[in-house]
Amino acid sequence: MFSIEDDDKANRGIINNFPSVPSPYLNFDPQLLPQSSQPEYIFLEGAGSKQRGRFELSFTQIGTSCLIGATIGGIRGIYSGIKLTSMENQTSTYNRTQILNSVFKNGARLANTFGTLSVYYSIFGIILEKTRGCEDELNTIVAGTSTGLLYKSTSGLRRCGIGGLIGFSLATAFSLVTSRDKIKEIGKSILHS
Amino acid sequence: MEEFGREPCPTRILEDLGGAFAMGLIGGGIFQGIKGFRNAPTGFNRRFNGAFHSIATKAPNIGGSFAVWGGLFSTIDCSLVAIRKKEDPWNSIASGALTGGILAARNGIPAMTASAVFGGLLLAMIEGFGLFFMHMSAEQFRPQPPVFEDPTNNANNTNMF
To answer: What ipTM does the predicted assembly reach?
Structure first.
């Protein structure tokens, strides 16, 4: 054990190597602790390690996409409302009502679309996660593709295919962005072998 | 009741919004499906088409109105928590009333009042039931008072013999 009064050069050297150690009683190498780049969560005892799967995240996802849809739709509504009212010479009360109507209509429509898509995606994702018993990029891609297919399934085979393609490309792009590190590691291992 | 199972406040708005939307979409989908099936002309294909059309056009709107309620309610709830620095049933009741009032804001003062009273009563009922069941379930965890025998009695008994 090292102590602060120790004049031993070797010990001093070791202590000085750890400038971040706050107290001589804690003079161990912080690198001995388990290192991980991911955040470490504390789970309730006996609750199992799979506490936050897709189901727990789904409501937040749906809410976020609804809110994004409402925001985009609202901005579009303001734009189209102002464009509509600026053409006709009416009172300001009329203009205000018209713009508000436009904002509510557009916002609600886009929020509904986004939210519905997100609900489909979450349902497919949860089903895939539960049936396959694991959580990876394949789930994301399959869920995205089937969401696109289902959403456009009423409007003809061609549009259905286009919807599926859009869903597939979005999901693939998302997985590529989120799992950059994994892809880098795979690439490194291929290069080194 | 399960406060520990919920998200902390800013994220809770999104969670409530999403939960309300999902509930409205799925519940409204089932309801509208039955309604469209019943209201369509005869023939199984037509009934099926009617149900499908009705779900596709009306379920997202129901989900949207649920989401507006849930999101606004949660936003006001969180704001009240931030302002009052405590979480209690009054927050929920007040935010239910305010949500009802705000959502009816374009229909005039009487409609706003009615809607606010309705929202407040609804949330008061929900919170009341929650508290009631919490008290019911807390009864079984009440610690039993331990029963001790009086040592003086014993001493008296031994002395008698």
So the answer is: 0.72
